[in-house]
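## tool: complex_structure
## caller: assistant
## args:
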Amino acid sequence: MSPLNQFDPQGRLRHLITLEGLTPDHILDLLDRAQRHVRPIHERPATGQSLAGLTVANIFTEPSTRTRASFELAARRLGADVLNLEIMLSSRAKGETVLDTIHTLQAMSTDIFVIRDAQPGVCRLVADHVAAHVSVLSAGEAHLSHPTQGLLDALTIRQRKGGFETLTLAIVGDVRHSRVARSAYQVFSALGVGELRIVAPAALMPELGEMPLARRFDSIEAGIAQADVVMMLRIQKERMVQAAIPDADDYFIRWGLTAKRLTLAKKDALVMHPGPMNREVEIASEVADGPQSVIRQQVTNGVAVRMALLETVIAHRTLRQGPV
Amino acid sequence: MSPLNQFDPQGRLRHLITLEGLTPDHILDLLDRAQRHVRPIHERPATGQSLAGLTVANIFTEPSTRTRASFELAARRLGADVLNLEIMLSSRAKGETVLDTIHTLQAMSTDIFVIRDAQPGVCRLVADHVAAHVSVLSAGEAHLSHPTQGLLDALTIRQRKGGFETLTLAIVGDVRHSRVARSAYQVFSALGVGELRIVAPAALMPELGEMPLARRFDSIEAGIAQADVVMMLRIQKERMVQAAIPDADDYFIRWGLTAKRLTLAKKDALVMHPGPMNREVEIASEVADGPQSVIRQQVTNGVAVRMALLETVIAHRTLRQGPV
Amino acid sequence: MSPLNQFDPQGRLRHLITLEGLTPDHILDLLDRAQRHVRPIHERPATGQSLAGLTVANIFTEPSTRTRASFELAARRLGADVLNLEIMLSSRAKGETVLDTIHTLQAMSTDIFVIRDAQPGVCRLVADHVAAHVSVLSAGEAHLSHPTQGLLDALTIRQRKGGFETLTLAIVGDVRHSRVARSAYQVFSALGVGELRIVAPAALMPELGEMPLARRFDSIEAGIAQADVVMMLRIQKERMVQAAIPDADDYFIRWGLTAKRLTLAKKDALVMHPGPMNREVEIASEVADGPQSVIRQQVTNGVAVRMALLETVIAHRTLRQGPV
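## result:
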């Protein structure tokens, strides 16, 4: 497979399937644009008409209320028509191939495909086959990539810390199976974070070749010591077994972010979580709801980042075609 | 638990989870406002932009095509973005708590939560935890409350009868398990209906302390005699067993509203039903479709009442925050 | 049953449940109007506000992502509110009848019902009972009728061939169980196509009395010889058994449209398929994706045809009632 090209011939962002290959400028442009869409939640949200007359197809083959809702609201607040489709792209339901489904929706004038799929490669496959004016945005791909999550994480940190160069950032939990961790690694590597740590039981660490710039820690205490940001990951039951941790209670004892453990990080360290949280498993409620938590701000930023992304890939289209 | 406060510090309606505690003025204001949204169905429905830029999350954990559609149309006809979510608030799907789901949606700038849940207390729990600008509207809560149904019932009666003071109103059927009956009791008690009757087999009567102002009848013939309004309730199979009624045919014989029985009520008595109807079980088709039936008008009024309610709780918000 | 009348007292189209009974003028008016909505897919699609303030209820009781999406986009691009409902009209879920569900939605000011149902007669039943201002559009009814598919097929052929009179059109595959074939037969008979052929294994031919104007062929080679248009139909596994064809591979060998077979048709013959395709079963991929295929254009035309149809039946309404 040739390397994935997410840019159009003029070098403008067209797809977003992975954060790999994005320059700091690309990322910072998206963050700047997203920041303009952030509002306090008690105000009416930012809206616009830059996607009026365009159609966004939200294709979710894994259940994800929150990410689907976030993309849906982002698109609708910019005036787009949104189709919500729960179809199995990676299966051949009724004998139709992935690409037939996509071509059908494209033939109905779908302009942007937002795709979440549990199988690696589906986003890429679609991006390789859609027409030149169509964009593909990943809403989470297998364990590989969740690029809008990486962007919203970066936006959240920049809002609170101003920049990245001097920060120590710890990603804690099931790093091995986490698309959130992979996208975080990519975005923070690109942005030149001071120190990037991955903190996990040995069995939940990624392969040795992966995430080469990260320092590895096999204890949460050491891993979050003096950190500026602690990003907790969601743990699934079946992964505990892999790590020889008998149950959720035990996971919490060994790996949960408690208020006591959090004191090991810097005093003003941020606590993040991509949600949905397993309270009292990977994170204590008093931490999730405490003053250092920016978990809800992450959600708010998620909508803003997705609005910025939709506008960016559509700007590509508008420029390519002249005014429409 | 402290008593539920559905009003903001200035005394304006913010949530609607129960009709208990609403004054006649509150109710009549809502009915007046709703009346302005009622149109003959062959005209284009009333629309507006008072909710433009706002987001309504429709969270239905019990299937209810009609109530969901009614809230959805009400919100969209006022310009709101509507998110339809089928999630189990009362379960801990994926380990996430009710309140995490709500806080996530709130962080995406959801302004109004419309919630139907089979478990008592979920609406209240949510209302106790949302931000000050957010409203919670019940779309039906367990057997306890269905406040917009109570309001649409009152609107329908006022349209046909002009007022409530002189009316005899009979609620017939499974009163014990009915949120419709409880909300009807609350609204008609508040509005000072002349006589309120509950008419049910003994086993389907509410506890003795409940609905203290209602007269109790254990025969439909006596219960609807000279009534101005006959409100039939939906009966479920499993409740017949409780009432020692062997089957639907037998229920119809003993408790069904037939044309013959209806002659016992006043000549111009209204026939109501919250839907969906079990025809030839609790109500004969010739009655449901007959000249005294206002069942379809109830549905039309339902949209108008929900529009009025959405505008009312948003007026609260707009006033609190100044123009937006 | 009296014959279905799809026209209002002034002779204007009100419902579309079957193409039977439509004159060439009716059909050509719809095609002309649809043609005005066709855009290249890289342009913003045609939009308008002719359905603003109106409500379209999309009631699909068979899964059909593509047809539902097509109607939904058509309606929304004309400014309508769209309710998507997945309810079993032909069952009595919760004891409610089909007509109660319809009357409930009508009482909420639904103006147009788009219905797909596996049971014959549901569309007709609904059309017979809705109020005079309401329209019913079939989105596929059992094996009987799929009128918007027939219209989009006609539009596609007219775009490429200019007219119908001199054309030889072959419909190939499971004609017996196909609503697509029946609606094609109706539209092309009405439009006076030169020669209409149905090409199928004997067991998948319609009864002898059906489609009297069509020539019957029991071999694909003879059936598509010198044809101007080859319309392939979707085959279902259970139908192969009926035709004594052991499996999909065997079906492809005997009945699949291969590149080699296609050379029997005219050199510029069009290849059509209603989708979703079973690739390498009824059609070879190289044909489906080849230069003679207009399969994607059919999908694009589908949205345009549905927009034209919605506008047409609403024009009926607007005229009847004066400006609204």
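## assistant note: Chain C touches chain B at residues 53-55, 81, 83, 85, 87, 94-97, 100-101, 103-109, 131-133, 321, 324 (CB under 8 Å). The two ends of chain C are 35 Å apart (CA to CA). Handing back to user.
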